[in-house]
Amino acid sequence: MEDDKIPARRKILAAAGTLFTTTGYASTTIKAIAGEAGVAVQTVYFVFGNKRSVLAALLDTSIAGDDEPIPTLARPWVAEAIAEPDPLSQLRIQVHGARLVLDRAAPVLLAVRAAAGADAEVAQLWATTCEHTETVLRHLTIVLADKLDHVDVDRTVDVGLALLAPETHTLLIDERGWSPEDYERWVVDALAAAAGLEV
User: Fold this and answer.
1) What is the C-alpha to C-alpha distance for residues 90 and 197, in angstroms, rounded to an integer?
2) Averaged pLDDT for residues 123-141
3) With CB atoms 3.0 to 4.6 Å apart as the test, which of 25, 69, 81, 109 could cross-link to 93 if both were Cys?
């Protein structure tokens, strides 16, 4: 039975991703998701239960890049950044990893944020996502501070949250035409400056 659910799950998430990021979460119905995915409405309910669960699963897989239940702090790119002894190299690794997450997830993150104002459950999902993002960034910044002197952890985290926000990523890459690589280099330079690290 589980094997039968995997293809349907992927189809539903792909369909939901298209609809949530174009027509919006509130305007998207389970029926519309089912139609876009080419599955029965009952299949969507069977696999996910409700629309909010579809959104939560889409957000999880967009951020992770897969269906594996591995927390961000246990992901290989985070471990590589933490293990890197050189502070600037750590920044480059962690920003690259974060940029790849945003390349996948920025449209979904913006859809969640847009829906949060009108739906209490989605607002909680957005709040949890923001807390998770800050936790990961703070952990990496504390690791960076251990390799440097006089790092203002709180300020560096605040700068990182602004630079790596889905709004910033979307503005510079999608609207202003920056390449992902240019955006990534800019984030590294700005975070290095915030940490007092010479590039």
Assistant:
1) 12
2) 97
3) 81
